[in-house]
Amino acid sequence: MTELQLEILFGGMGYEVQNVRIVEDIKTGESKGYGFVTFRTADEARKVQEMGVVQWNGRVLQLDRAVKRKTMLRILKQQQQQFAMSQGTLPVYFMAQSPDSAVPVLMEGQVVDIESMKYILRYNDYPKDPYSDKNPYNSICSRGDLLIPSNSSPSGCYDTKETDYSRAKSLMSEAISGPTYQGLPVFCWSHFKFPNKHVGLPNCYDFDFVTMKPKWQ
Question: Of 90, 10, 81, 93, nearest to 45 (Cα)?
């Protein structure tokens, strides 16, 4: 979701949007998954907050008041545990803002189990996804090696780790090494010309998720 799309979403509801800012990573320029929407009055912000959720492009946006970072992290952790234990759903957070009553928007993905969580974390459908703008770097699991040859580089999403509440209590998780290949070519070092070989590393990364746990288990 872009800043313009957030402005159109709330402006179309009759609210006067003063400012929209999606926070980006300073080094990469990519969205960090949260931002802020500021409305003209605190009353408008309160009304948006009271809506609780809105639908956008087939997804549910959860609305709430922005709070200090440490408090928000604690709230998100509690929400994730509640979803996992009571609803069997894991929220994928995409935050945006609001006024002095800043309203962070949490965008829930279609995550209903671990397999769908893996799919979201490894998602990159840049040839068809309109929000990627045909750029393999503009996706959840980016692929710098698929950029045009002059800009291609072995960078982006190079591994993925996930767990759930029950396994986290036992210090267990699942991990996969290498860029995503969901509907995309497998990443291979042989596609690049480097002065030094990558000794000890596999050439192609077509691995599956593996379970990781402490040795004493």
Answer: 10
